[in-house]
């Protein structure tokens, strides 16, 4: 049986991150825990941050696939929320590290890619100026990441949060709203 070396390295890093900050994990410690050589590690990744980026890209692919299979936009967004919550311990550890800015940038970049893929797939027939689309995707990417980080600990029901995100994305959240 062939071992997926990248997956093994990523899973080992995730286990190490359960007990230790990413700032404290060295490549030597990671390769020792994997039982591989430094050369094998560097064949697949440049550094630990690249492992995290690879894991994020894999999670994004699975999330997009799940979202595309969802019967409604609300279910698609709910699958994203549940995916983030499944990885909340890892995300929290990463956000508590000295690499917080890199992690935030990666999360926003990932949400941008997700929203772009979903827009291309689900709203292919809509006409929108590219500059307007860029602004909307930026706005929603930062908002999505901020709200999800705020709700990592399941403060809000996933169905409720997904409904609210859908309402924001479609503008329906403002229907019936009145200024006091």
How many beta strands in the DSSP annotation? 0
Sheet-strand content, in percent, reads under 5%
The 3D shape can be described as: elongated
User: Whole-Å distance between the termini?
Assistant: 66 Å
Helix/strand order: HHHHHHHHH
Q: Kindly state the percentage of residues in helix.
A: over 70%
Model description:
Helix content is about 70%, strand content about 0%. With about 180 residues, the chain is an all-alpha fold. Helix 1 crosses helix 2, helix 4 runs antiparallel to helix 5 and helix 5 crosses helix 9. The longest helix has 23 residues. It is elongated. The model has no long low-confidence stretch (mean pLDDT about 85).
């Amino acid at each position: 049986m062939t071992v997926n070396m990248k997956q093994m390295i990523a899973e080992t890093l995730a286990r190490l991150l359960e007990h230790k900050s990413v700032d404290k994990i060295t490549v030597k410690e990671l390769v020792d825990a994997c039982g591989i050589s430094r050369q094998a590690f560097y064949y697949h990744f440049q550094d630990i941050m690249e492992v995290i980026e690879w894991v994020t890209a894999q999670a994004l692919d699975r999330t997009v696939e799940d979202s595309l299979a969802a019967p409604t936009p609300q279910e698609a967004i709910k699958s994203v929320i549940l995916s983030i919550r499944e990885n909340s311990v890892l995300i929290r550890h990463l956000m508590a590290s000295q690499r917080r800015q890199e992690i935030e940038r990666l999360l926003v970049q990932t949400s941008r890619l997700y929203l772009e893929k979903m827009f291309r797939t689900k709203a292919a027939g809509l006409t929108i100026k590219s500059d307007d689309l860029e602004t909307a995707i930026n706005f929603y990417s930062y908002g999505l990441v901020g709200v999800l980080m705020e709700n990592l600990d399941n403060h809000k029901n996933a169905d409720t949060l997904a409904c609210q995100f859908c309402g924001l994305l479609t503008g329906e959240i403002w229907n019936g709203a009145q200024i006091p």
